[in-house]
Fold these 2 entries.
Entry 1:
Amino acid sequence: MERNTKDFYTFSEFTFLIPIKKLEEKENRSLRKMALINNKKFAILGLGDYALKLMRLWKSKYRDSFQIIGYDYDVQKAKGLWHNSNLLSDYAESFLSLYDIVGMPQSNEDGEEREQSKVFILAADTQEENDKYFKELETYLFAGDIIINHTSKKIILRQESSILPNIEYPFELLDFIIQN
């Protein structure tokens, strides 16, 4: 028995018979546009082996839901990944531009300022590299920003307090939450 290859699509008062593959492509484009509008972005710092593995996994599961912004001290590596693969949605040339890209849009349609957390994944292959990325990124962080450090297996939440600016949680906390 042959599977249907076409389906009806209605736009305004018109109805069209369109190949299902075209409808699926349209839906994928719509999902990508919604991800842009909803600002579902996160940054990956340190584009080594672990970062590539993470990006491939993320894109295979959440391709149309999130944008991945890449940063590496070797900007040509980030630019090359963005240009030659579908793993990165964008790349940054500096920490300031990284923070701006992950935080855009800054306001809603009516001009009201958005206040939402930004997510950064420290994905370099060594703890020393991740420490270096974190130290430079830290000057741009605001309260509510989330940093995930894959080598130390910690989730860091930025606070407003000058006494305790960062609260660290172990990855095991997520396991506990998921299992209970």
Entry 2:
Amino acid sequence: MPTPASEATPDTEPKDDQEIPVTVEEEEATGGETVDNVEFEEAIEEGDVEETVSSVEEVISKIASLKYPTDPAHNQAFDLKCNVSYVKMCVVRGPCQPILRFPQNTEGRSFQKMWYENKPWLEYSPEKDSMYCFSCRLFLNEQKYSNKSAWRVAGVNNWKRGLDKMQEHADSEAHLTSMERWNTYKKNALQAAFEVSDVQGKAIREQEIQRNREILT
């Protein structure tokens, strides 16, 4: 099996300010994507997106049509973590939790799909072969959290201590804060949807009443 270049040594966790080399795993097939989407993915890998898209909204529209639209790699490539449209797209699509043949490191270890269970925040990036936290990368952007970048930016791929790392993160104050914000965002979106529905329903009822009045007169 291929060994990802981004794999940290088994007993050494990447530091927050340490850059991790990235290896893009080549897909055996396009997965039904159009030629334009394949070209856009190639542009992402080559860092040449300015000639491909003309605005942030167009970037988000293109990302939304990719095979893994919420892959954290896109978040980093375009610095979209604070963009309202990007956050909305990610929340609607949900965390990146693909089920595939995860690449193994030199010790034969890899990400495990069972780790997704009871962890709605857990993400796996096919491009970076690393774990990320959905809520932290989208809802935790203050300067005071800048040193908590492993689960937001660098990614975690110490598979030997994978379960320990996830538990440590799940118990952290920063993660609990981001989860509360994510839940609040979802509740507000749901409330807004109900409010729109109520307004539309009221308008329909008023129109029906007016039609009935016209019939009776």
